[in-house]
Fold these 2 entries.
Entry 1:
Amino acid sequence: MIGEAVLELSGVSVSYGSVRAVSGIDLKVYRGRIATLIGSNGAGKTTILKGITGLKGLDAGRVRFGAEDLTNRPVDQIVAAGVSLVPEGRRLFPTMSVRENLEIGAYRRTDDAAVRADFDRVMEYFPALNERLNARAMTLSGGQQQMVAIGRALMSGPKLLLLDEPTIGLAPAIVQTIGKIVRTISESGVDVLLVEQNAHMALRLSEDAYVLENGAIVMRGFARDLEKSDAVRAAYLGM
Amino acid sequence: MGLIAQLLVNMLQIGAVYVLFALGLTLVFGVMKVINFAHGQFFTLAALMIAVTMPEFTERFGFPAWVDYFVCFALALLTVAILGVVLYFVGFERYLRDLIGSFILSVGLLLLLEGVYLWIFTGAPRVVPKLLTGQVSILGGALETQRLVICGIALAATFGLYQLVNRTKLGRALRAVAEDREAAMLQGIRYRRISFYGFMIGSGMAAIAGGLIAPLTAISPSLGNDYLSKAFIIIIIGGLGSIPGAILGGFLIAAVESFAGYFLDSSYATIAMFMLVMVFLLVRPQGILGHAER
Ligand SMILES: Nc1ncnc2c1ncn2[C@@H]1O[C@H](COP(=O)(O)OP(=O)(O)OP(=O)(O)O)[C@@H](O)[C@H]1O
Ligand SMILES: [Mg+2]
């Protein structure tokens, strides 16, 4: 038994104007199990995350999160329900300091003590940020920016963390660090859906995996099984 | 020395008014991605309201002039706020992030409101009664007490609003929406609400600027037009959407105007301003503190 699905997408379709980007997506994230969604350029990964977080309305389908129906709810309500996205390209507030970027992650929270505890935890995860707290976000290296982006998402105190290609363009050592932290986050009780083009890292890190092609899910299963499948090895692992 | 002091106070005072005006315009642009060509109409309305209501007040209640000024100032801000709410919900809310739609809307409002003001207030220039009499001497030069006090208030208001944008939670949300709307929404910031607040605060800044200029100039329904074009110059120099840029640009333009206007001639001051714009467009098109497109 895998247990209970925390997040469940059923029949989700999203379009840009009249062009369908993804259709009929069924996807589940289980409690305590990292799920990954892999797919190449333009497959529709980001679009699915926008559908979950409410940045894009759904043409069809439903998004269930725990006992709540998040389908076509406004973004702020979805965030309040405990879903947090680390967006593609990090999307920090460039002229704000690192500290401000982190604090704004807790924008809707009023539990000040818990917010401070989460801040300390982010500093524990990413000690490198400690001495950059007053620097403007745009002056940070790519790896540090990614750390701030993940930290900012954690500052909302999420139950589910969505990560959109967090390792893209980063040096191997940083990719390792980010991978480890994602594991730690998952073990701390925050559920994780990881979107990646870097299938090597993603499949090794996660329990469950989905493969997206041209806006549809073409394969699903345990990550370790997909890692061994010939189709995945040929298309995504370059073997 | 006395002359320098006078020019300096003049510069700080017009500068603060320019800064408030331009800061409001740049804030509205940042948050809504709308260039509000009718921004000056809030400025004008505030000044007109004060000019019209103040003599009435003085006649009826006989308080000292500066008390009347503050009461009428508050009344003017209230009037502008009502106009702002109406314009936002009837018009601007439908054209968020729509540069062309909002252009047509705001140019229309610019013309419409000027016509309405002419009709209500007539075109005759009005003057606000003196608030304070007397002079103080600074650095050996005589300055009207009134000018000095208004200069102080203008600087304080500018500083206060700067703090609002930079230090408060609301200010942070405004800046976040201006820098990256989607990322801001992902932090739980309600974009539509913040965009309304941004519009009201930005328009309020124009109204405060108008109220502060009222005792120092002749007021007519077209008062705002001149300030609008200066605000565009300031924003080009400071960088579109940049708050510190608007502040620097505002004082820079005021300095050029005060000093070049005195030592050369006011028409040279205008030429100097446009030269400055040309230089910036050629050398640093993103402005002093603007960022090149990412
Ligand atoms: N704003 C948009 N307007 C129109 N079409 C879009 C828009 N964003 C994405 N698309 C299209 O939707 C499809 C899916 O895009 P999406 O960004 O979800 O892919 P992705 O899997 O995240 O790709 P990548 O790995 O490059 O990030 C693509 O065909 C893309 O061209
Ligand atoms: Mg993507």
Entry 2:
Amino acid sequence: MASYIGSRLLQAIPVLALIGLLSFALFAYVGDPVTIMLGQDYTDAQRIALVHTLGLDRPFYIQYLRFLWAALHGNFGNSYRIAEPVSTLIAQRAPATLELALTGTFISVLIGIPMGVITGIWPRAAFSRVFMVISLIGVSLPVFLTGILLILLFSVVLGWLPSFGRGSVVHIGAWWTTGLLTVSGLKSLILPATTLALFQMTLIVRLVRAEMLEVLRTDYIKFARARGLKTRAINFGHALKNTLVPVITIIGLQLGGLVAFTLVTETVFQWPGLGLLFVQSVAVADIPVMSAYLMMVGVVFVTINLIVDLLYFAVDPRLRVRRSGGGR
Amino acid sequence: MAALLEVDRLCVEFPTRRGVLRALDHVSLSIAAGEVLGVVGESGAGKSLTGAAIIGLLEPPGRIAKGEIRLEGRRIDNLPPSEMRRLRGRRIGAIFQDPLTTLNPLYTIGRQLVETIQTHLPLSDADARARAVSWLEQVGIPGAADRLFSYPHEFSGGMRQRVVIALALCAEPQLVIADEPTTALDVSVQAQIIALLKRLTREHGTSVMLVTHDMGVIAETADRVAVMYAGRVAELGPVASVIQEPAHPYTAGLMASIPALDRRVTRLAQIDGSMPRLNAMPPGCAFHPRCARAVAQCMAEQPGLMAAGRTEAACWVPVKEALHG
Ligand SMILES: Nc1ncnc2c1ncn2[C@@H]1O[C@H](COP(=O)(O)OP(=O)(O)OP(=O)(O)O)[C@@H](O)[C@H]1O
Ligand SMILES: [Mg+2]
């Protein structure tokens, strides 16, 4: 177990270093930070002094290592647009994005898995067919369109829910803000979280359903039936657990895709999270923010992959034996 | 002996786009308490289908179109699903062919045993676990108490089939349907598994419907044999009579093709042609196109099981002379 986690962590290091290189290249070579920071009028002496302070006169690899070292300490320099440390900006925005992404995923898993199981058990039932048509629409609609349609219906026509922003938030501790504790915060969360959940959910339903259909045909399910086990135990125990490995993989990959979808969703709903921060930074070529965002997305991907691997390990005993080299 | 299980003129059909296929046609057989009924026949003869119908697990769209299945005189073919479920495992068990695929790979065998036991018997966790250990010991798993926590992939094929047998018998059903329980196993362990099955079912007084291609196993294990052909029972009788004095020409061909009784019935060397397909069944007796003894009646009228010598055969012109000795 420990060696398995260890080897996974070791594999993550080169991946992160590579992402660091990309994000450093973006930082160092796209745009000219010196010009941007000095503004219109400057003397050569000022310029050389700044180049020296920023360390831009040092060899490439020294700069890269210094960048990594600083990044490890959460230091990505200052934003060009707002003269504040990038780390502060990110810390301010992260709670909003995390709450949105987690709520969206939670909803999609909570609805998606049972619906997948049910439509897999009764593939011919009328409600299964209706649900599959709906989910097909869900898969094919682009996220921004879903968002806009939801705004149109629930904000413009019905006027029930706010169309943008995060509502009022409550501070928890030094740096966390949450919208989950106020009515306006919760109301604001519904539409963007639903938008985010809808796409993921339809994919999860289709995947769980396909896996379910496959597993229900296996001999061990037939044997479980032949032993008279309860239908619920067979469907939601024996069968569902066997669909989990592929489902976890896809949900893991999906969570990666979530980065892209939060970006779109946050833009549509003007949700004050990291995605919106990134979009705003791209518009004015705020390189430090962009490179920090890139770095962070990399870390998120690697972390999710690690979690997915650990979940495999928890679900499938066959992996455990192979990894630990023998066993009984 | 009063019959434990009676299958009475059972017809199983598959509705298809091009009409209804009748896969079992008036199959009748019975199994007495404690008896081992062997079922033989070529591939596609309907052996597995008969087992599936008895245990109530026909795959849709397959359905029982006619006939009855009775357990201790009570009809079970029309029970509501929940009652049929309670009966499975508790009164009729099943052993499948391939032990590599019949165990859930993600649960320990202890969990699978305890779950099965507690589904049918009102036992505490500790008692159910004790019973699980006892069954693992009975099927000859060494270190049974420790092996509760092992996963299926940690056992060899033969050991897994022992676990499957424990799972099938752990709620002590009155009847167990063993559909080719050794076909997927190494030749070296086949005999052990059959011996184990024979011993356990005798000790517990369990009746067995043993489907196999191995006439040697039938001769050694079964009390009576049913020979199936094209979804019908061709011949039914005590094992010695069916082997030595078969009345149905098909059985005669079957037996003659395996003189040493140790080879598998895979292909019939002595009978030309092959079993008719379900969508091209000949009128009359299904065997008549391959039968040297066929007369006009065979092509016109379908024979039912009739007493013929020491067995019952579905044949208008049964064989009279003994095969061996
Ligand atoms: N879903 C189905 N649709 C149509 N026909 C089917 C279906 N399932 C089984 N059959 C037919 O039922 C017949 C009997 O099949 P069964 O599996 O009982 O044969 P078997 O005697 O067990 O053969 P084997 O020795 O190969 O196991 C076969 O002709 C098969 O084609
Ligand atoms: Mg079969």
